[in-house]
Fold this sequence. Notes:
Blueprint: E1 7-9, E2 15-18, E3 23-25, H1 33-43, H2 47-63, E4 67-68, H3 73-80, H4 87-103, H5 105-108, H6 117-121, E5 125-127, E6 137-142, H7 154-169, H8 172-177, E7 179-184, H9 190-193, H10 198-211, E8 216-222, H11 228-235, H12 241-244, E9 247-251, H13 254-258, H14 281-290, H15 292-298, E10 302-303, H16 305-310
Parallel strand pairs: 6-7, 7-8, 8-9
Antiparallel strand pairs: 1-2, 2-3, 4-10, 5-6
Helix pairs in contact: 2-4
Amino acid sequence: MVQPGKLSFDEDNFPYVDLGTVRMCMDKQEAPDWALEVARKELRETPDIMKESFEKLNQLLDEEKHLIVPREETYLKIYLRPAHYYPESAIKRIKNFFNTKIKHPEACRDLLPSKLKHVFDADILQLLPVRDQLGRRMITIHAGKKWKPSQVPLIDLFRGVQVMIWGAMVEPLSQICGGLVIIDMEDLSMTQIMQFTPSFAAMLLDYVQECICLRLKAVHIVNNSYIFNILFNIFKPFIKEKLRKRLHFHGKDFKSLHKHIDKSCLPAKYEGTASWEMPHSSLTYELFHWYEADYEKAETYGFTEEYKKKK
């Protein structure tokens, strides 16, 4: 019998964490047929368009002499799927993504699970073991009382989020269906709020709105009280209309949350009916750490040192 919480491997040698009634894993295999049909309808993923888009994106990458990224179709899909197979949009995202690493080196350095174990040990970032009813990847961020800035600085929390986002970006199913974030503000205090500055808010929202290559379908804020407005006002000037429409504030009204995420996909903590409990984020670390070599490889992509010096 597999012990809950222990890293195990399926018949295809993919790792998973056994939670008793469900397995928490990364979906590395190709997306199922129903999702490929979604890709066809929503992302224009047809053989002819794909062929044309791969060719055009490769041409655009050829013009970027100082940008080093893999050219395999599997990798290029990371950027083409969220861009609905428009190569010009994809190359813009690629350049934005890697330019962010140059503009904000401290916030984007060492994006490796092993370098951020303390973040996951703090139980503030969690990969939920199931997707929502639409196949979207779900992660939770605890930015209230669980987060102790003295133990996990804000910049490390952001780096941990980036590790999780990259994990979703390379999942074929997440590339198609996208993802959502639940931000839990339970017992938020001035201790947490004082960590945020307008410059950090601008950087974070630039990353979310212009850089990540993931279809961010929704951000759900839960357990937010009146004090949350102080924090939100720091971010508000930098939120563009597209993201604004995808922000949902629920407070402690979980029935409101259930209008967006089926109760069967949520644990009891959010008044859901899932058979599993919210997993400790150290289990998320176990899973991501197994893919450390993939993260190390991803760290080698981007602009050349010569280009960085010019910037």
